[in-house]
Design goal:
The structure holds 2 protein chains of 2 kinds. By secondary structure, chain A is of the alpha/beta class. Chain A has helices at residues 55-62, 147-163, 177-184, 196-207, 242-245, 262-268, 282-292, 304-313, and strands spanning 7-8, 13-15, 20-22, 30-32, 47-51, 67-70, 76-78, 81-87, 95-101, 104-108, 130-135, 167-171, 192-194, 216-217, 231-234, 250-255, 272-274, 296-302, 317-320. In chain A, the strands form 3 sheets. Chain A has a 7-stranded mixed β-sheet, covered by helices on one side. Chain A has a 6-stranded mixed β-sheet with strand order 1-2-3-4-5-6, with no helix packed on it. In chain A, strands 14-13-15-12-16-17 form a 6-stranded parallel β-sheet. In chain A, strand 5, helix 1 and strand 6 (67-70) form a beta-alpha-beta unit. By secondary structure, chain B is of the alpha+beta class. Helix content of chain B is 35%, strand content 24%. Chains A and B meet through helix 6 and helix 8 of A and helix 5, helix 6 and helix 18 of B.
């Protein structure tokens, strides 16, 4: 038997032909990184390779790393493997990684969503023999409404709060979700304030040319009274905190795929929950898998067993792969950068 | 259905009682009489008779969604609610409709008279014209258990606001065996009910837990001690020749405890008693576990009445011969009710809860340590010269509970919670050592902070040894102090014991799994307190 293109080790997904890892969770010599979230881009590797669009945020979060960047679609030879990065639609610069060895093609999806959000590079199906897919929302109860519909809900909530003299505090992960929301809402409704963690990412992405509306960072000197009817975008951990109390009467909301579930919505004890996810929904996962044309499917983080069983019944050769990716939406209370400070 | 769905959404989006009440009151002002009546019925535990089994419903929903049944079944524990799982799994509706809540309930009622194929068609037809929230509510009407954060009391208060009627009067009107099929909104709510005033309760006086040293209460001679019974608090009202029983949550629970109907034979009209409802074996309380099945039952089966008869252990008198007794000092109130009650025959459903004699605090502490043997949770201390106040007030009444029993145990299985806690591992199974084996002996779900549950959830994901459906066997590594109120022999459990009110008192980061307690330690406790 020949060596598989990719194998699953206790350090992460490994390519023997090229002697590199994809999104490894223990320090390795050479790491190919799908995107900058903390569970995929970890510190401590000797060399990093990512898309040029993902690299600025990684450098911002991981500090002085030894890194190289490639463009989407550009093929790189590493050992006996040909490697290329393709848009995953998860957040700006996020990629699926295609690895070809001796004519056999495997793709590691990282995190992805299939609906174009008009902000990051849209997901592209990559034909392959084997597809390693996330399945954070791999249950048929998770289906997302169109982005436009949710954007209207958020706009209506904000406008109504503004009209009744309340601030609107929207909780969203500071890398990716926050910027997508800023991009999708109607910035004409009122001023937009941001928490420092969100603004730090905004600065990095704006410098790369991503289009974001004007925002003002909340500082100790800022007087919220100067910004009536504002929308405040902050990491979930800041909601309900002392930090949030400065805005006076307010309505709080959280944007996540988990808001689809009433139980989670209630546990969050927010005024509103908006169903916005940067992961594929059930239908998105199935479509993506079908479009790769792959027969072999590996399910990683999420509802892996259930999803693999369903795929097996559909005729795929599906296997569960244990990984240490904890999707950022999975740990509902955690902020991506939190573990790294 | 749109109005009712909007009401549900408003209620569901807030945890504030005032906002819920406001939303309900607004509904009562705009809805049609039949919809109002059904809303009242649903929030007072009445629902249309079930025409479709949940098994059928699951199968039909899976069929309509185009997924295998097992996939729906596996999704259910993650969502935590069957009606919601079905609402989420179905494809989007192809039509819209503006039919009323009452219309849909009529459809459900009509299902009794048609064959299964037609039932299925009608359910599909309904699903295809309801939006996700309406669908969830429609499914809830079928599956029952309409618990969406609105108590009967809250609903009654909103109705009082909307109709400008007195809350207690309305609570009385909502009592009894009515259903929307047997009455109208007008007859139930708008018509005068002369007897309503007679059921009106007094606000309960509630005690705080005693935290410091009991001697700080001053001279023991100023205090009365009585057992703190482990039942449910009740207020029994005898006026106008009939009786009414209120729970501490100020819900009318008269129908659930028919035993008290006879109280009118033994006591004068115009009597209001405050006491503990307990199951009674003729000598002493039978324990809370025997009372539990009675609490939720609106209609009590004969067998349950026979197996778990209740009485009230009376510890206060709020009204005597129509006179408000609350300003009278406790010592004097007690003299009056003891006179009233001590002469009653043994089969009367009310008995005085005796005052405990003690010569000093030390002696009372010794008595208190016997509480478990007396089927009590501890002691109540009440100042003898105090009036009966309203609400929870510090100073005159104190709960002096026994410390819980505790044991250090190893967590061996974890399971995701339901509903609010669906994404966290919150339900754990604990074990103690029996030689080199870990024997499971209890489950516990509560006592940790959200942050701790989050920490354990992350740990469980990385330390799963085996999976059995939703249950994960985890590395036996973490030790928790399990607190509980009682211990009993139980042949149904592998360990041979069952605990009462087990919960996690704390996470023993300082202990390794090897340092947890043993099955022998539990057996010693069983001998002592079982």
């Amino acid at each position: 038997m020949t060596e598989p293109v990719l194998s699953f080790t206790d350090r992460g997904i490994y390519c023997a032909a090229g002697d590199f890892y994809i999104d490894p969770w223990r320090p390795v010599d050479r790491a190919l990184i799908t995107h900058g979230h903390a569970d995929h881009a970890r510190p401590g590797h000797a060399r990093y390779l990512s898309t040029s669009a993902a690299l600025p945020v990684m450098k911002h979060r991981l500090g002085d790393i030894r890194s190289e960047a490639v463009e989407f679609g550009e093929t790189r030879r590493i050992g006996d493997a040909s490697v290329s990065f393709h848009p995953a639609g998860h957040l700006p610069g996020s990629a699926q990684i295609r690895v070809e060895v001796g004519g056999e093609v495997w793709v590691a999806s990282g995190d992805y969503k299939t609906e174009p959000d008009g902000f990051c590079e849209p997901f592209e199906p990559v034909p392959c023999h084997a597809f390693i897919t996330e399945c954070t929302f791999g249950l048929p109860v998770f289906n997302w409404a169109a982005q436009k519909t949710v954007a209207n809900e958020i706009n209506a909530w904000w406008a109504q709060n503004a009209a009744s003299g309340r601030a609107s505090i929207l909780g969203a992960y500071s890398l990716g979700k926050a910027q997508r929301l800023l991009h999708m809402i109607d910035s004409g409704i009122g001023p937009i304030l941001t928490h420092g963690a969100v603004e730090a990412t905004n600065v990095v992405l704006r410098a790369q040319g991503y289009n974001l509306p004007e925002t003002v960072q909340v500082t100790a000197e800022l007087d919220p009274k100067d910004y009536p009817g504002a929308l405040i975008v902050a990491p979930p951990s800041a909601l309900g905190s002392k930090w949030a109390s400065r805005f006076g009467p307010s309505s709080s909301a959280f944007a996540s795929g988990w808001m689809r579930l009433r139980g989670v919505r209630r546990r969050r004890a927010m005024d509103r929950g908006f169903v916005v996810s940067d992961h594929a929904d059930w239908r998105g996962l199935l479509t993506a898998i079908k479009e790769t044309g792959a027969d072999r499917i590996f399910t990683t983080h999420g509802y892996t067993e259930i999803f693999a069983r369903y795929l097996s019944e559909k005729g795929y050769d599906a296997t569960v792969v244990p990984t240490e990716f904890g999707s950022m939406e999975e740990e509902t209370g955690e902020e991506p950068g939190a573990q790294n400070g | 259905m749109k109005e009712f769905a909007a009401l549900f959404t408003a209620i569901d989006q807030t945890t504030k009682t005032t906002l819920k009440t406001k939303a309900l009151a607004a509904f009562f002002e705009i809805a049609s009489d039949p919809d109002k009546l059904w809303c009242i019925a649903l929030f007072s535990g009445r629902r249309p008779k079930r025409a479709v089994t949940t098994t059928q419903l699951r199968a039909w929903a899976a069929e309509q969604a185009g997924v295998p049944l097992w996939l729906l079944e596996d999704s259910y524990p993650i969502v935590g609610d069957l009606a919601e799982t079905i609402a989420l799994i179905l494809p989007p509706a192809s039509r819209q409709s503006d039919l009323s809540l009452t219309h849909w309930i009529e459809i459900l009622r009509g299902l009794h008279d048609v064959d299964e194929e037609t039932r299925k068609e009608q359910i599909f037809d309904a699903w295809d014209q309801l939006d996700p929230t309406e669908r969830f509510l429609f499914n809830k009407l079928i599956t029952g258990g309409f618990r969406i954060g609105v108590s009967q009391k809250l609903m009654t208060r909103a109705l009082a606001q909307a109709t400008q009627q007195d809350e207690a009067v309305l609570a009385h009107k909502l009592m009894g065996g009515w259903t929307p099929e047997t009455t109208t909104y007008h007859d139930l709510i708008e018509a005068d009910d002369a007897s309503a005033d007679e059921s009106r309760p007094y606000p309960f006086y509630l005690a705080y837990q005693l935290e410091g040293d009991v001697a700080e209460l001053g001279s023991h001679k100023d205090w009365q001690a009585e057992w703190k019974w482990d039942g449910i608090r009740g207020q029994l009202i005898l006026r106008g020749g009939s009786h009414h029983l209120w729970s501490r949550g100020e819900e009318l629970i008269t129908d659930r405890f028919p035993e008290f109907a006879r109280a009118v034979d033994f006591l004068p009209d115009g009597t209001v008693l405050d006491g503990e409802i307990v199951t009674w074996d003729g000598q002493q309380p039978m324990g809370f576990s025997t009372l539990q099945p009675r609490i939720g039952r609106k209609i009590v089966p004969k067998k349950l009445l026979r197996d778990a008869p209740v009485i009230m252990l009376v510890y206060d008198l709020l009204e005597h011969r129509g006179q408000d007794m609350r300003p009278v000092p406790l010592g004097d109130r007690r003299k009056v009710f003891e006179t009233l009650l001590t002469t009653l025959p043994d089969d009367a459903p009310v008995r005085p809860s005796p005052a405990i004699r003690f010569d000093d605090w030390k002696m009372l502490a010794d008595v208190r340590s016997q509480a478990r043997e007396e089927k009590a949770e501890g002691i109540m201390l009440k100042r003898l010269d105090a009036p009966y106040k309203s609400g929870r007030k510090k100073g005159d009444w104190w709960k002096w509970k026994l410390d819980p029993l505790t044991i250090d145990a190893v967590m061996i299985y974890a399971q995701q919670g339901h509903g609010r806690r669906a994404t966290l591992f919150t339900d754990y199974t604990f074990a103690v050592w029996n030689g080199n084996d870990l024997v499971p002996f209890t489950k516990a779900y509560s006592g940790l902070t959200d942050a701790e549950f989050g920490q354990i959830t992350a740990w469980v994901r990385k330390n799963t040894l085996q999976r059995f459906g939703p249950v994960r066997q985890v590395r036996p590594e973490h030790v928790f102090e399990i607190a509980f109120e009682g211990i009993q022999a139980s042949p149904r459990h592998k360990s041979g014991i069952a605990l009462r009110f087990p919960r996690m008192a704390r996470w023993r980061h300082d202990k390794s799994a090897q340092e947890a307690n043993t099955l022998d330690d539990l057996k010693v406790m069983l001998d002592q307190y079982g």
